[in-house]
Specification:
It is a single chain. This protein has two domains: 134 residues, Rossmann fold, CATH 3.40.50; 131 residues, Rossmann fold (3-Layer(aba) Sandwich), CATH 3.40.50. The longest helix is centred in the first third of the chain and has 18 residues. It is an alpha/beta fold and 318 residues long. The chain has a six-stranded parallel beta sheet, sandwiched between helices. A six-stranded mixed beta sheet has the order 7-6-8-9-10-12, sandwiched between helices.
């Protein structure tokens, strides 16, 4: 009788041990994921596009379990020294992954390389760094050249007669600006007989966009079309055109909220080639968290480009 009781107790103990496995937890569920800390660095919050990226980052961070995400940004886009400081500060805090949008990553390469050499997974977003493409965990962004090409094709289709063309740049020489402009020219090729009469730099500044467009219209009152490489300056240019009572065919880039409102209202701006900044932010967090946990991450994640005009502006989410 005593032997029977001992055998029953032993079987029960084995059953309880199986139910209480460390890998599955008390409820027998999936193992708890490693808690990780992710630092995200933006070049600035001086335009709607970066603000939307931050919104996407923060929204996705709330959806992630066991993840602490911090976001820091420079005061203005050209402050590369400040961004370097933010990257170095993140690395000093021994976070599990760092994600960086440097706008222009060239001045940041030494700092970014130190992050990689230190063993911290690095995700770049919005602005690529070809020199590091084999060493980063992932790149999340879009193809700015294809976006520019889509803008050029839109203008070619919607202004087949051609005419005088003005171009407004957002920081001349910036790799993103160059890619958008090169793509635009490729998309426009083979269309109407466009003649570029002015190429000016508004430095991604709304007030400068207004001033350079005032000068452009004064010098070229018969302006037929305008391409701007960023909505940030475009809205200033729109103000100048309205004041001069001019309405050339106008295509821009970024599809920022205020630009989309102008497109919907038929307020000078006709179209903007854009991609979802919020999605880039969200996908960046996903990639950084996966890299921090040692999970497989796609080396490149490309968000598709859409030309927003009056036909689809009402449904654009940004």
């Amino acid at each position: 009788m005593r032997g029977t009781r001992v055998m029953v107790a032993a079987i029960a103990a084995v059953g309880l041990a199986a139910c209480g496995s460390d890998d599955e937890g008390e409820a027998g569920g999936a193992p708890e994921k490693k808690r990780v800390r992710v630092a995200v660095v933006l070049p600035a919050l001086d335009n709607d596009f970066y603000i939307a990226q931050k919104e996407g980052i923060e929204a996705e961070a709330k959806r992630q379990e066991g993840v602490d995400v911090t976001v820091s940004a420079g005061r203005q886009r050209a402050s590369s020294e400040e961004v370097v400081g933010l990257i170095e500060d993140a690395a000093a805090k021994s976070v599990d992954a760092i994600a960086v949008n440097g706008s222009d990553n060239e001045p940041l390469l030494p700092a970014l390389t130190r992050v990689i050499d230190g063993g911290t997974p690095l995700v770049l977003f919005d602005a690529a760094a070809p020199e590091l493409e084999d060493r980063i965990a992932s790149y999340v962004g879009t193809d700015n050249r294809l976006g520019g090409e889509a803008a050029g094709k839109w203008l070619k289709e919607n202004a087949p007669q051609g005419g005088e063309l003005g171009i407004v740049l957002c920081v001349a020489g910036n790799p993103v600006t160059n890619a958008r402009l090169d793509g635009f020219r490729a998309g426009l090729a083979g269309g109407g007989d466009f003649k570029t009469v002015a190429t000016v730099d508004a430095e991604c500044d709304r007030e400068k966009g207004r001033r350079v467009m005032e000068d452009m219209v004064a010098a070229h009152p018969e302006l037929d079309a305008v391409f701007s490489t960023s909505d940030t300056q475009t809205l200033g240019a729109v103000e100048a055109l309205k004041a001069a009572d001019k309405d050339p065919k106008f295509v821009s880039f970024d599809a920022q909220p205020d630009a989309v409102k102008a497109i919907r209202a038929g307020d000078v701006l006709d179209a903007s080639s854009g991609f979802s900044a919020k999605r880039i932010g969200a996908d960046t967090v996903k990639a950084a968290v996966a890299a921090a946990r040692g999970e497989r991450v796609a080396k490149e994640q490309i968000v598709p480009v859409t030309v927003v005009d009056q036909a689809n502006a009402a449904g654009w989410k940004g």
